[in-house]
Amino acid sequence: MVIREVTSEVIGSVWKIERSVGDAVEEGDLIMILESMKMEIPVEAPVAGTLSEIKVVAEGSVEEDQVLCLIET
Q: Contact at 8 Å (CB) between 60 and 38?
């Protein structure tokens, strides 16, 4: 079992969370959408696995390189 961190590429806020803990994801699946400077930035799964933890909340702010969620592969 390997845990992969998914991090934010931008400073902004969490606009919408599309997946839940325990969901299976494939590489490229949409996990959440961030908003930064009125732009929507999709956060996609970098690997296939199970979403084991979501570390942010909808409408919460995020920093660049902040861990958003964990995927167990």
A: no
Amino acid of residue 35:
E
Pairwise CA distance, residues 27 & 73, whole Å:
11
What predicted TM-score, i.e. pTM, was given to this entire model?
0.95
Torsion over CA of 52, 16, 29 and 72, rounded to 10 degrees?
A: -10
Tokens for 28?
């490229």
Count CB neighbours of 67 within 10 A.
13
pLDDT per position as a tens digit, 11-24: 999 999 999 999 99
Lookup: tokens for 62: 């995020």
**Which architecture, in CATH terms, is 3-72?**
Beta Barrel (2.40)
